[in-house]
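Appendix B. One record, verbatim.
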Amino acid sequence: MSNFFTDNKDLQFTLANLELEDVVKFRENSYKQANEFDYAPENLDDARDSYKKVLEVVGEITGERIAPRARVIDEEGPQFESNKVTYHPLTINNLEDLKKADLAGVMLPREFGGLNFPVTIYTMMTEMVSRADASLQNLFGLQDIAETICEFGTEDQKQRFLPRFACGEADGSMDLTEPDSGSDLQSVRLKATLDPKTNQWYLDGMKRFITNGCSKVHLVLARSEEGTSDGRGLSMFICEACPQLVVRRIEHKLGIHGVATAELQYNHVPAELCGMRRRGLTKYVMSLMNGARVAISAQALGIAEAAYREARKYAAERKQFKTSIDKFAPVFTMLTSMKMEILAARTLLYETTKMVDLRWAYGHLVEHGKPEEITTDIRQNDKFYAKVAAVLTPMSKAYATEVANRVSYKGIQIHGGTGYMKDFNAERFYRDARITNIYEGTTQLQHVAAIGGIVQRVLDPIMDKFAALPYQGKLMRLSTQIHEMRKKQQIAVQYVAEKKDSTYFDMVTKHLVDMETYIFVGYLMLRDALKVSERETIAERFILDAVPEFDRSYAVVMSGDVTLIDNHKEILDY
């Protein structure tokens, strides 16, 4: 018997120790929902207990039912014939298992049939689903579409769509990418036209690389304003599957085989505006990005957890020279490194989700609250958590997805030649991990997204609080090292700013983001070690490993060597 929640000590630690007081209070409207719904929590302890019980259910479903089906789904995948996608019967079973457990509308309000859970708890579910079958997460994780309709749609749209999502009757897709516009969403060309006589919108054009493009409900980014060519001419639309919306083909991919990735043709598809015109990219997609980055971070973390556990199990069973190979230093050092990186990625991810939850809470108050109740503090917190989320979500995605690739790579290495064969899961984890640092924005684009907040020192108020915690003994010595790294980071940021060389700035962006990540995660590790003493060793190992990596990046940034740019050109032209 395997339960992907109860067998994960670190995930249980995270749920028990993450500071969710404000998050839950906002979600539950100061626990007034308990007066309307008999299953709503009456206080924080009640809420945490409810989360734990549901996570145990998800852990049982993922460990006992979904994980054993994953290899067959990977090998056989969905079928495509006559413009119709048919998911594998085992994928249908997986979705039914999740639906029967009332997990189709995790974050939706209870009035629409949802659980009203915060992003943090939903992300824990996402991690477990991804550990069992990473491709299934690409279906389970599309609940953000319903969240977008909930946040920005009209009351009529909420009433028509959200109950269908919550009960699992409707599934969704996020139709953003086009054949000629990948990450450059400002150049989207799919056209939205309004019939002035009927007030009906119609969509015409192409979309590509659309996850679950065979869905019943589509959230579509389209150009609604004639004569525009940038993001200000884009709006968000909702449409449903119909004969005019044609699935032209599905992609044959390296990994994530269980979900269909489609190319779509819109032939005057009837649609309805979601939110306001011209806000599709500048507001609604940007809002979706926080959720998307978090979801892929959790997917990557789930894959890494699966790859690590498979490698550790194999190493304990595989004997060479009459000794299991996990006793050999090259192997156990790889396993230790894999585990450390997973722990670091997890503590960063769930600190990030907490900030995303707070961003949602204050944003919701400002957007929907009564004007007389929106205080100066609420507005300031709204701006602060918006900036923090804008830094941490790309940082988390960059870190977690690169970790997943390293861990799954080492997983195959520990398996040796057998890891290259389809008889073992190691090669599947390796293939599935590879997309995580590409879609929803490559690692390089995550660095670009994070660097502005790093230069502006957005995370400093949070790190100031971490720095002031009552460390003693070993933790005090480790905190001193983090403090020294932080001083160097401030020098490096100032140095690059004063240089006023945009090309040099672009070249060292990755290093500055990596340095900030080492510092922030180091503080998180120290904070966690104050709560449980056995985590002191974890904090020590992370910081001792991080210091030389930080110093290497610091040396590159402070070199000021603009000739590196010319060297790149010479090498590329050779």
